Amino acid sequence: MNLGLDNQVAVITGGRRGIGKAIAAAMAEAGADTALVDVPSAAEELEATAQEVAASGRRCQAVPADVTDREGVQRAMREVQESLGRIDVLVNNAGITRDGLLVRMSDDDWRAVLEVNLTGAFLCTREAAKPMMKQRSGCIVNMASVVGLMGNAGQANYAAAKAGLIGLTKATARELAPRGIRVNAIAPGFIVSAMTDRLSDEARERLAAQIPLGRLGTPEDVAAAVVFLAGPAGAYITGQVIQVDGGMLM
User: Fold this and answer.
1) The model's pTM
2) Where are the domains of the chain?
3) What topology does CATH give the domain 9-244?
């Protein structure tokens, strides 16, 4: 199946592992070149992931940068354009959690989660939108969460950031549509990760019991939705929040 991403360039933040890594692999399989952005402190792991993705035959560049650093984001986007020629797709996937009950949550934990999950997406979107506007085409996918739609005890900071990301998605979708740029969000549910791997079998079964499809999602489930939105099949979709949650929040 031709997914229509041949020779396009996708920038994926939080790209060194988990959902970001799965997105990079899926985009490369669909024919896109990729640039993976992640924190400089993880540069070695980021480079290893880039080499793994590049083994598929598409170009993949590791770009160490902190998405909360305005100048760092500007440098990263310039580097991608200089080395790969353009930016067609931006996936704002970088995110962190600092869970805790509201009355015990520190100011630092509140700020850190808002900075990475929301401000980081804003900074990357602002920079990537500039070349997209010039070429009058582009696709931005923001990684939200079902927590941003339903809330979750102990995650006031994360829920606020992801809900804000949904608002950012809708506002930028309206603003950038006249330039041919589509902006959507994906809201994953319970996804298999290093965190869920540490849970007991009983705990994982309890999570799965909340999902109509009866299983946790995989990073590849999320990646498939990103490829769909980025390709021609998603050409008439913008300003939407697509839940990849097995029906958990229907």
Assistant:
1) 0.96
2) 9-244
3) Rossmann fold (3.40.50)
